[in-house]
């Protein structure tokens, strides 16, 4: 079956049980994360991403991108925040990037028409430029002049009570903030969870240095 049938619940993703281990930068479920307090002042006027104080990691996800590239995702007890670490070699290999994301919205999708309107051919998602609140972001994935297809990703998630997989169809946009090596990222993802519920999440993130956070 095709990806849309998976998204609409006709073909559920397989449930897996990944190992709960210590990930890159010492991050893991149950660990605390402390962000550098000076980030708020640094980002003021440059980005609308909110930097929290200390947070506890509730769940962790892993995405195998292939060719020895991995995404480790950490979802905080405060559900407004999540952290993504890109590594190469293996999951705990060389850290290539760290991004702090804020969830902007999470919308449940109930029909094919609604999916087309929100994240399909009738939407801006997948076009070379996306405008949010008057700010333009450039597409990071896809080379088409017009709208491109969303990128499939499978995430394996574990929290203290359960393990499951999520099927994503995602698109990433970015813009420069004027700060060195700190870009603002806009991520859209059509998701199917373990119960077959389809949703569209929108997250706004900021690039971090590894020194911007500590595991506690």
Automatic annotation (TrEMBL):
Q: Which domain of life is it from?
A: Bacteria
Any one Pfam family match given in the protein's UniProt record, by short name: DUF2491
Can you name this protein?
Answer: YjfK family protein
| Gene source species | Pseudomonas fungipugnans
């Amino acid at each position: 079956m095709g990806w849309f049938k998976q998204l609409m619940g006709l073909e559920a993703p397989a449930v897996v049980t990944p190992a709960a281990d210590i990930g890159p930068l010492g991050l893991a479920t149950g660990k605390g994360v402390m962000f550098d307090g000076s980030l708020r002042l640094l980002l003021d006027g440059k980005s609308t991403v909110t930097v929290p104080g200390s947070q506890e990691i509730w769940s962790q996800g892993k995405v195998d991108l292939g060719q020895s590239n991995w995404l480790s995702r950490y979802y905080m007890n405060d559900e407004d925040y999540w952290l993504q670490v890109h590594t190469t070699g293996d999951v705990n290999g060389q850290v290539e990037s760290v991004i702090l994301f804020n969830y902007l919205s999470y919308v449940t999708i109930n029909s094919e028409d609604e999916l087309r309107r929100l994240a399909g051919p009738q939407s801006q998602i997948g076009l070379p430029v996306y405008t949010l609140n008057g700010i333009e972001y450039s597409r990071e994935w896809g080379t088409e002049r017009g709208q491109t297809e969303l990128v499939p990703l499978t995430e394996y998630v574990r929290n203290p009570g359960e393990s499951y997989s999520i099927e994503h169809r995602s698109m990433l946009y970015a813009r420069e903030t004027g700060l060195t090596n700190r870009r603002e990222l806009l991520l859209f993802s059509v998701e199917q969870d373990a119960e077959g519920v389809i949703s569209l999440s929108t997250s706004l993130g900021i690039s971090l240095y590894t020194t911007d956070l500590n595991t506690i």
